[in-house]
Amino acid sequence: QSVVTQPPSASGTPGQSVTISCSGNSSNIGSNYVCWYQHFPGTAPKLLIQRSNQRPSGVPDRFSGSKSGTSASLAISGLRSDDEADYYCAAWDDSLSGYVFGTGTKVTVL
Amino acid sequence: EVQLVESGGVLAQAGGSLRLSCAASGFSFSTNSMVWVRQAPGKGLEWISYISSSSSKVSYADSVRGRFTISRDNAKKSLFLQMNSLRPEDTAVYYCARAAPLDYWGRGTLVTVYS
Description:
By secondary structure, chain A is mainly beta. Chain A has strands spanning 9-12, 18-23, 34-39, 46-49, 63-68, 71-76, 85-93, 98-101, 105-109. Chain A is 0% helix and 45% strand. In chain A, the strands form two sheets. In chain A, strands 1, 3, 4, 7, 8 and 9 form a six-stranded mixed sheet that branches. Chain B has no helices and ten strands. A six-stranded mixed sheet of chain B has the order 2-10-9-4-5-6, with no helix packed on it. Chains A and B meet through strand 3, strand 7 and strand 8 of A and strand 5 and strand 9 of B.
């Protein structure tokens, strides 16, 4: 069971905004950058946010990340039907000497 | 273009062994750390192993430590995962990814372990 927790689901109508939370501890989120991934089952996860709040080239500015203390969040604005996917946060964990992924959040566009 | 292609996933019996491979192209493989991540059916992503660029540092999740071994061949731009003492709970899609951050991923290879 992951030490980093996310809500299992989030939803919104097209055009609305959705925010996903990610809660960890001082060994992971509290002391390292957070990344966010979009994952469609059967495909390669896609990096949406790196270094807690930076978008890689090609990622729309509808996606934004933030971090405070041992928590982070991903905001999706202008929700679209193709945003319907699983979203994961991840961070390096100093005590594990490895990465930890959040439990994952399924976003549904109503 | 960065590409990571996993291979070696098969149907295996519990207690058996498998070796997964990840072929890298489009970037300087020898200067990047790499990881293996898996996703069991109906479950989330789980990091299982990390290897530094020179292989000097490796680490494992508790769930696989002592059974799995990560390695790499920088000359052949390849990453490996030797999986021994397989268990049904190792059934998953296995992904390799470039670190850090984990910015490029392969499409995964399916490992199914039956008892």
